[in-house]
Amino acid sequence: MEKLAINGGTPVRTEKIFYGRQWIDDDDVKAVVDTLNSPYLTCGPRVAEFEKKLAEYVGAKYAVVVSNGTGALHCSCIAAGIGPGDEVITTPLTFAASANCVIYCGGTPVFADIDPDTYNIDPDSIRSKITDKTKAIIAVDYTGQAVKYDEIRQICDEYNLIFIEDAAHSLATKYKGKQVGSLADMSTFSFHPVKTITGGEGGAITTNDDELYKKLVLAHTHGITHDESMMEGAPHEGIWYYEQISLGFNYRMTDFQASLLLSQLKKLDMFAARRKEIARRYDEAFKDLEGIIIQKEIPESDTCRHIYVIRLDLDKLTCTRRQFFDAMSAENVQCQIHYVPVYWFPYYQHRGYEMGLCPNAEEVYKGIMSIPLYPRLTDSDVEDVIHAVTKVVENYKRA
Hints:
Layout: H1 26-36, H2 45-58, E1 62-66, H3 69-79, E2 87-90, H4 97-104, E3 108-111, H5 123-129, E4 134-140, H6 149-159, E5 162-166, E6 174-175, E7 178-179, E8 186-190, E9 203-207, H7 210-219, E10 224-225, E11 243-244, H8 255-265, H9 268-286, E12 292-294, E13 301-302, E14 308-312, H10 321-330, H11 346-350, H12 359-365, E15 368-371, H13 379-396
Parallel strand pairs: 2-3, 2-4, 4-5, 5-8
Antiparallel strand pairs: 1-9, 6-7, 6-13, 8-9, 10-11, 12-14, 14-15
Helix pairs in contact: 1-8, 2-8, 3-4, 3-7, 9-13
């Protein structure tokens, strides 16, 4: 048995790799520099072009791009009309923004439990959480796997709820052959550096609904419009004239970010193919490794993984998750944890949420760990990750 690096053995790798990393090439740099040398840095033609291209890619009628994924979620809640007294059901196994966006609007997040095999929100748990105050569902495509759209859509139609999909992880994923971003009432995306494509930061909302689109446009630009058909006050006096017709925010994207994203979008299919290839290799390597549980997928989801999560079967290991995590780091494979259940945070505890709300999510959280997954990983890198996981498991396996 190989001695662990944390115990004085030789690390699997000499250079550390991390769980995620952006891909920026010369075409991306040129796209940004060309825009920096143009007359527009913000509110320019590249933003509109990226909105058009993104909508076309996902098969949606409209796309509204914003400054980050949190802004996309916030604008979606505004467009959905979330306000004081309204409840919105979401998952606790997500980044805090999926729930915070409801509170920004004065509403109350309600946490439904997850499926213990797929780690996505469980439609049966959603049903159990519906009250006469429920107004929307924010379903998160955790790790990139599509949620059970058909079942959640049925619930939304039955109770007249808005279906918001947090697709921050799932750009390029398909559900029953259709791209994520074209199925929910609104779908939100993030373009953070470790996402499938990046603008440094950035986000977007896609929709097929005309009225929701108008509300999204207003929400991300101060509630201000130049569109005469939407104006309510004085007659239009010239091209300079605009009106504020609602309370909105400044969530605009810059033109140079949009230029980077346009360049990245051209590589999206290549990025997705490589991510899928790596995920398949991990699945094959870990499917029979005692001590490791791999995430199951529904057959309807053709998944482009944002992150690859292994789950430690701690009953079969002599270590804690922290010890496993530290041992992987010593092998120069740096992992991450996605995510602490949202309602465990002090802010939510102070609002009256208690531990134990979602037993499946809490149990899954105890063992999950994200291992490196990004397109620039070489085949040798991938084998190093597999080697490190296997090495640590073998050292900590119960007799």
